[in-house]
């Protein structure tokens, strides 16, 4: 069953006298449990696609059905509700509230959930979510006490707290080094494989895209390729083969040394 | 999001930047404290005047010679020679006049042994203690007989007794000299304190029969003032009217011409003073209100900065499910929390200031619950009014743009 079904999606921005056609008719279906990576150069329309799929923006024309519900004509308040309950966002810049504990950051979406969970229940769910990303022992740390990778994992926990249908990640590894990127991708893969959470992930790094099950490439507002990934990379395996942190530093040091000599 | 949760979120947000929160509140605190202190001061002054008037007796009527409004040479009130003992005796017959005392004033040196003291000498009649509601403390007041015979007897005010004989000494029966004539002290008045004007020590005076004052001390025939007490407070206005009529007939003033005397009731004087104080306190409260306004603008300023600074946070909140109205409410509640907290601290400080004024300057102040409510309400209103624009700005942000904001 398709979680996301997009039909002839178009988006046109008007900037003064110029019309910018960001999306020129996109058709795609994403099934439950898929791990879709979206690639494309900047200006290809992948971000616009993401915003519409994430219900942050409305299409100029076309239809978008999420979980069997047409969301393309919804009002602002209804879209906010959809974002709250069905979509989990992960951003490049983490977007955690500063001077706020990891636990409170993770709980944030529950505050906008109209089911009105009690304080205790909220704490329990936030702890569950932090446990899923392996950061339970850091629950009371503030963002500035966490590494970039840990911050991104807190952001993933925040995205998971309302048990959404899809996890939308917009260049989640853009601010991370390659080792931490693999660690973060391991979390996404685990959530996808073990819990069957649908993931849509934007990236412009080709190797990051290979962690998914299916790759979609955008160019000039249309999908130019949509292929299953046959040789899927497995982050958990790769971590095992990574040298320990200390060795990496020394290796980098020798590399720099050899480059300058 | 429930309102309770919104308030919690607001507290958390304000707690993240304590220094700025404190400084923003300071504007509100100063404004509210100033308003509270000024109102307390104004109320206190009005109240103390009212109590003093009540203590002095509200049914008091003063008739003075002379009038400021007379053309030609203008004499000060009471300086004109046209108020006579006969006038006073005519007034005694008026219906509703309960007590009456002629009053002539001078100043003189009073000598007792090696001590001397200058004071006000009041020539009066035995009804004066009844009119002024001023009991005799030691000895007794002089009698009608003393007035008739112009005997040299004196009743001291408490201050005079203290200055000449020392504290705690009973001067009754002692002989003092006023303008080189021996006077026997027959009584000492109880302590009355400052006059309602606040500048004059009412206990610094000596009372002698008015006949004695006229003949032995001043050598004058006319009188300066007649003090009258109406039978009841309700009759004051009608009695004052009758007094004016009788006086106009006696002084042969044609209708249309202005009086050559002044009839004043205590209520009029009180009303005049209260009016002055009300104007003053309204002025002060106005100035204080301006500082409250400035405090409000400070809140708006900070909230606007805060909205810009937290654009990404707003974007994020919208992305994870906050509706426009949730964001609006959040910033509005933050502004209101700022102003209400500032208001509460301001009320406490204003209370402290008015207590301090009473303690160190001995000015009367009075806190009233409606002033507190007013300040609190104004603080809340300021918060909503000045918080609304920044909150609207926050709520109207586009989540995509907000998330991209650097």
CA-atom Rg of chain B in angstroms: 33 Å
Secondary-structure element pattern of chain A, one letter each: EEEHEEHEHHHEHEHEEHH
Poorly predicted runs of chain B are none
N-to-C terminal Cα separation of chain B, in Å? 27 Å
How helix-rich are the residues of chain B, as a percent range? 55-70%
Q: How many helices of chain B does DSSP assign?
A: 13
Overall pLDDT level of chain B: 86
Radius of gyration of chain A: 19 Å
Number of strands of chain B: 10
Strand content of chain A: 25-35%
Give helix % range of chain A: 25-40%
Biggest interface reads: A-B, 28 and 23 residues
Looking at the structure, what is the overall shape of chain B? elongated
Overall pLDDT confidence of chain A = 88
Overall geometric form of chain A: globular
Topology (SSEs and partners):
The complex is a heterodimer of chains A (261) and B (406).
Chain A: E1 2-15, E2 18-31, E3 35-39, H1 46-53, E4 61-66, E5 69-70, H2 76-86, E6 87-90, H3 102-111, H4 119-132, H5 148-160, E7 166-170, H6 178-195, E8 198-202, H7 206-209, E9 214-219, E10 222-228, H8 235-241, H9 245-260
Parallel strand pairs in A: 3-8, 3-9, 6-7, 7-8
Antiparallel strand pairs in A: 1-2, 1-4, 4-5, 9-10
Helix pairs in contact in A: 3-4, 3-5, 4-5, 5-6, 6-8
Chain B: H1 3-15, H2 18-56, E1 60-65, H3 85-92, E2 97-112, E3 115-124, H4 128-132, E4 136-139, H5 144-149, E5 153-156, H6 158-165, E6 175-178, E7 181-189, E8 205-209, H7 210-218, E9 225-230, H8 236-250, E10 261-265, H9 266-309, H10 311-319, H11 324-361, H12 369-395, H13 399-404
Helix pairs in contact in B: 1-11, 2-9, 2-11, 2-12, 9-11, 9-12, 11-12
Description:
The complex is a heterodimer of chains A (261) and B (406). Chain A is built from 9 helices and 10 strands. By secondary structure, chain A is of the alpha/beta class. In chain A, the strands form 2 sheets. In chain A, strands 6-7-8-3-9-10 form a 6-stranded mixed sheet, with helices on both faces. The C terminus of chain A is likely disordered. Chain B is of the alpha+beta class and 406 residues long. Helix content of chain B is 56%, strand content 17%. Chain B contains 13 helices and 10 strands. In chain B, helix 9 packs across helix 11, helix 9 packs parallel to helix 12 and helix 11 runs antiparallel to helix 12. At the A-B interface, helix 2 and helix 3 of A face helix 1, helix 10, helix 11 and helix 13 of B.
